[in-house]
UniProtKB/TrEMBL annotation:
Domain (FtsK gamma) ranges: 40-90
Name used for this protein in its record: FtsK gamma domain-containing protein
Transmembrane regions: none
Gene3D superfamilies according to UniProt: Winged helix-like DNA-binding domain superfamily/Winged helix DNA-binding domain
Lineage of source species: unclassified sequences, metagenomes, ecological metagenomes
Native source organism of the sequence: marine sediment metagenome
Length: 93
């Protein structure tokens, strides 16, 4: 099957235009999902373990979660944010 250079160029242009739209949509969705609370994110499977550590020690840090759960800083920081969001309002004051 012969495909001319012009047909190949049209296909490449079409594929390129499709990819740009998809990438733009992903960026908008990421911006919307990162504003406010973490309602769009699934709960981290280690959140329960982090809650248990918090109950046992009352005060924990991001680095403590890193060591005990053997995870990296970004994940530990997200877990800390989730723990802070779930704190009852009376404890915040």
């Amino acid at each position: 099957c012969f495909v001319s250079d012009a047909e190949i160029e049209r296909l490449v242009y079409f594929w390129g235009s499709q990819r740009k739209e998809e990438a733009a949509q992903l960026k908008v969705e990421q911006l919307v999902s990162t504003t406010g609370k973490r309602e769009g994110f699934p709960e981290d499977p280690l959140l329960e373990s982090a809650k248990q550590l918090l109950e046992e020690h009352k005060h924990i840090s991001t680095s403590y979660l890193q060591r005990k759960l053997r995870i990296g800083y970004p994940r530990a920081a997200r877990l800390m944010e989730q723990l802070e969001e779930e704190q009852p309002k009376e404890e915040e004051g």
